[in-house]
Specification:
Blueprint: H1 6-10, E1 14-19, E2 22-27, H2 33-70, H3 74-101, H4 108-117, E3 122-126, E4 135-141, E5 146-150
Helix pairs in contact: 2-3
């Protein structure tokens, strides 16, 4: 089996350094198109969820304020103000929860391992279309869980 050069795997923006037997891969200015699509999708989902939460709590806070304004009893006004404070705290908590849920975490060592393993996940694929069976080279990119045809 032929040994792979790091530049074959990562391109020209890769650097290799040995530190105590450990291979360190440093990528600079590498366009991770698969991560960009994931990031954009997560941003869209997050924006939609935050808008939904903000709309709900804005309406709820207005309703509680109107109830407090209509109330004549001091006890009822106090309960309404307590509910309003609880609603504001819950609004903040839910926004924070959604931001954390839509966060993308990259584990550099695992990502580097997968980047080094990608060349091993190459194969040829035969596609049957309209009575023809052309053969294409393909590779699996585990970070985005997709097969790509090398056309």
């Amino acid at each position: 089996m032929e040994a792979l050069n790091l530049n074959q795997i990562c391109g020209d923006d890769a650097h290799r350094a040995d530190s105590g037997g450990e291979v360190v891969v440093k990528l600079k200015n590498r366009p991770f198109y698969e991560l960009n699509s994931i990031r954009q999708r997560q941003e869209n989902y997050l924006r939609r969820e935050l808008d939904r939460i903000d709309d709900y709590f804005t309406g709820y806070e207005q309703e509680l304020s109107q109830r407090a304004a209509r109330a004549h009893s001091e006890n009822t006004k106090l309960k309404a103000s307590d509910r309003l404070a609880a609603a504001k705290a819950e609004h903040t908590r839910r926004r924070t929860d959604q931001v954390q849920r839509h966060e993308i975490r990259v584990l550099p060592r695992l990502d580097a391992l997968l980047l080094l393993a990608e060349p091993a996940w190459r194969t040829t694929v035969t596609l049957a279309r309209h009575g023809q069976t052309p053969t294409h080279a393909a590779h699996f990119v585990p970070r985005c869980r997709r097969w790509f045809l090398d056309v």
